[in-house]
Protein 1
Amino acid sequence: MTTVHQVCYEILREQGLTTFFGNPGSNELPFLSNFPKDFRYILGLQEATVVGMADGFAQATGKPGFVNLHSAAGTGNAMGALANAWNSHTPLVVTAGQQVRRMIGVEALLANTDSVALPRPLVKWSCEPSCAEEVPLALSRAIHMAAAPAAGPVYVSVPYDDWGKDAGPGAEHLASRNVQSAGALSEDQLTSLVESLESARNPVLIVGPDVDAANANSYAVSLAEKLSMPVWMAPSAPRCSFPTTHHCFRGLLPAGIASVSRLLCEHDLIFVVGGPVFRYHQYEPGKFLPEGAKLISVTCDINEATRAPMGQAIVADVALALRVLSEKVSQSSRAQPAPRLMPAPAPENAGALTPERVFDILNEVAPRDAIYVNESTSTTTIMWERLRMTESGSYYFAAAGGLGFALPAAVGIQLARPERQVIGVIGDGSANYSIQALWTAARYDIPAIFIIMKNGTYGALRWFAGVLQAENVPGLDVPGLDFCALARGYGVSSLHVDSSDALVAALRQALSAGKPMLIEVETRVKL
Ligand code: TZD
Ligand code: CA
């Protein structure tokens, strides 16, 4: 007899999901028993951390990540992290152990009641197989479903007595299956897009996160150069899809309706690729589009295409579309956009560092291909203005704005990309939501660097309180946190710095340490 356990591990092996991120409980033990030697299990100490690490890992590899959670309680802890994964189109196969079948109905301790509904609406597909024989098919389907465009998390709940049962006939076909999708533009769509782009008087390109996810940054560069187009990163960017040093690059669009239209007011054609139109944040009423401007978007996601409040949308493969467009359009006779003015170097100052200074120092000291994971909310604009990011896969940010992403994601990304240095730039508020990821970095020797921007407050909320004219709001300060002590407690070496020189020295030490390091930096509040 071939067990469900045997068949499922064969499917996971063949499909390349041999790294598990998990936090186990009684329901999961039969699944994890006799864990094969060619698999690795990365333990996270809380489920937000587990999913954050898997999210970073899956985004950095571009392949489905595998998560194993404990029943309803584990899934509940993971929901905030799932919101980020859902919004970043991260392919994640999230599995959860269920009580033994005979004990679900009586709602025994740790039964996952209505398990299929629990993770919705933050998964593409959710399933609890109706019998043990259906578990392999459900797992196989979950993997292909997670990876199919638009990629995203899926959920499978498995009663723990299923693993030892007979898989039944036919399951051997599943491991080697593959599911592909063809998302090329039709001839008519291509002709019409080329004509729109070539005939525009002053087109602008807005790149979304899925350009970077599709590794299509270089096609975006070719297209921009051929059409002499300025390029903006779409608002609330969770990735960096264009080299920030390129002469066409203008920066990160702000996340208010009126501001976007104002900044794009000179353009007659707004071409958006690989992202929603748009991920606004602060409510800033105004016109969705500048007067007379036309918007066309290409996205891999039918939800993004349909919910956009303006413009035409085409659902297609982002990389294929950009590549073929960059080949087809003819070179424009317009002058190339002039490089944007880079901000002047931030002056030296005594006492707590300005965030500007921190980013200047990172530019100076960090490797050119460093990967930044940002969750320093009030300094994001400064970061985009200053940081040089030229390679694809250089920047990650919580796609739903859910804090607790950056610290574990940095660990997952570093695990996926050992050849590049991962640097988390994380606020002293944000660092607390998934702080346990430090332990995983120490335990598995994952040499990410965590820079904690310690300004003692929820800086972004102070700014937002100003926008909303909300006065005397409680609970906005976070004094008295000692991140060096917290890091030590989780087994990670740490350094406290309160001057430029000390930060430079600490960074150099961390870069050559070959092990995870946390640097707590005293910073000024940015208002
Ligand atoms: N909880 C979760 C899970 N996600 C959130 N986004 C928030 C709360 C609300 N929130 C923000 O949107 S920004 C922010 C909070 C609490 C402040 C983060 O403070 P920080 O960074 O210290 O990390 P800054 O630079 O001081 O803003
Ligand atoms: Ca802060």
Protein 2
Amino acid sequence: MKILSIETSCDETAAAVVEDGREVLSSVIASQVEEHKLYGGVVPEIASRRHAEAIVPVVQKALDDAKLNMDDIDAIAVTHAPGLIGALLVGVNFAKGLSLSTGKPLVPTHHLRSHIASNYISHKELKPPFMCLVVSGGHSHIVMVEDYTKMKVIGRTRDDAAGEAFDKAARTMGMPYPGGIEMDKIAEFGNPDAFEFPRPVVRDAPYDFSFSGLKTCVINLIHNMEQRGEEIPREDICASFRSAVVELLVSNTMKACEDYGVNTLVVAGGVSANSLLRKRLGGESQKRGINFFKPDKSVCTDNAAMVGSQGYYEYLSGNIADLSLNAAATLPIDYR
Ligand code: KG4
Ligand code: ZN
């Protein structure tokens, strides 16, 4: 079964063709990041306009690259939630129009479930059940993935997402958006023990995260140094901050694996590209005899191939929408 998939939840206009949930026949991404860099973050109004300009050529290229036309496609999957509402609406309305004009079924797909599915592309043998740490620019969740479309949230952030914490700390040091990527690179040259950042625990919620205190702490540190006219030791700050965020993510995730007795752990979302997080989760899993899976770096951040993968399993589970489908800025990962 061939699925044409569409992703417009944030600042990437993406389309792909995926066969049977695992085989990527084409994947096209038009990134707007250079334009948003000028403003230090995503400007929703600009994102929507760029999606509207890019959606037709991006979808056409996905079909062309796969050497297919719409007659060869069996279903259309589209990210309908969560994300920037104006951005999501471009993809959802385009998919609805395409579904109406071609008669192909329309499959609404949750963005975070798609991030999890990026692992099905990278690891053909991976099947639920497993525990998954989903860490992106907008979300940080520990999820028990019982089946492809059945999941339970075990832990979540109480405030900022991990990616957001990276981006804001990086922005304070004048690093370009999205700062998480840059911070990860610079951290390699610094001392992770140079600064002691707080590692908050959420009382009575051992799997929940809180990153806002950590973020405020690094921002205050930088501002105080600037006021004293000191040079900012970027490498050491990046290394110490990265280490604090990663240790929080790793400790709660490993505790969840132990308490729930799972032997398979998966990481997903943009922050899963972080080199220290990948290394630390791999190492801790190995110590406990847990099989650890991480997506190829090429599918960690937003793309439509992962939507085509999750869309396949949504389709098989009967998640098919009619033309009343709407976009939603928020939607729990365990919504159905
Ligand atoms: O999943 P994603 O592409 O978009 C959302 O759904 O939010 O995630 C983007 C986030 C950004 O916050 C970005 O800074 C972060 O992922 N990110 C990283 C790395 N690569 C991307 N954070 C830390 N280290 C990285 N290597
Ligand atoms: Zn994402």
